[in-house]
Amino acid sequence: MSKSKFERMNLIPNLKIALIGIALVATSSSFAQQKKAKPEKNKFLEGKKYSANFYEIKAAGRGKAQPTQMFIKSGKVEADLMYEKIAAPPMVYTVTLDSTYTEDETEMHMVTFEALYSEEGNDFKWEATVINYDIEGIVTLTKKGIEKKRYEFTGTEKTKK
Questions:
Q1: C-beta separation of 117 from 137 below 8 A
Q2: Where are the domains of the chain?
Q3: Theoretical Cys-Cys bridge with 117: which of 58, 90, 124, 144, CB 3.0 to 4.6 Å?
Q4: Would you identify the CATH topology of the domain 48-157?
Q5: What pTM was computed for the model?
Q6: What is the pLDDT along the chain (161 residues), one digit of tens a residue?
């Protein structure tokens, strides 16, 4: 039994609508993939350079200080020592707290941030707090949910002369 001319004509607009829908979905998903999220840049943190001491935390206790340089630039945090010791690349940070308060009649600016990065089963995490010119925090390396390395750090901003 063949379809009437009316039934075939009704099928064509539905086919056109379906093709347009498919084309829109395809172009919107490819556009979304091209648009990468830009790193968040915090005005207080950006361009800071710190002289820091990193301490490896082991079952036996805290290791001795290992001095290094830390940088916060282009929306990322990095430290030379962390790259050398655990291959932690520069990581995009996310600010979790940005606050100004007064303590003993002195204005204090506090920013807390974290940075996460995963690669080949390794998960890197920075957690840090900056108060005025000082920074402190923790860097961890976990593999398959098991902590492999942990470093605590403290540092002071290197001011420009």
A1: no
A2: 1-36, 48-157
A3: 124
A4: Lipocalin (2.40.128)
A5: 0.74
A6: 555 555 555 555 555 555 565 555 544 444 444 444 566 688 999 999 999 999 999 999 999 999 999 999 999 999 999 999 999 999 999 999 999 999 999 999 999 999 999 998 999 999 999 999 999 999 999 998 999 999 999 999 987 66
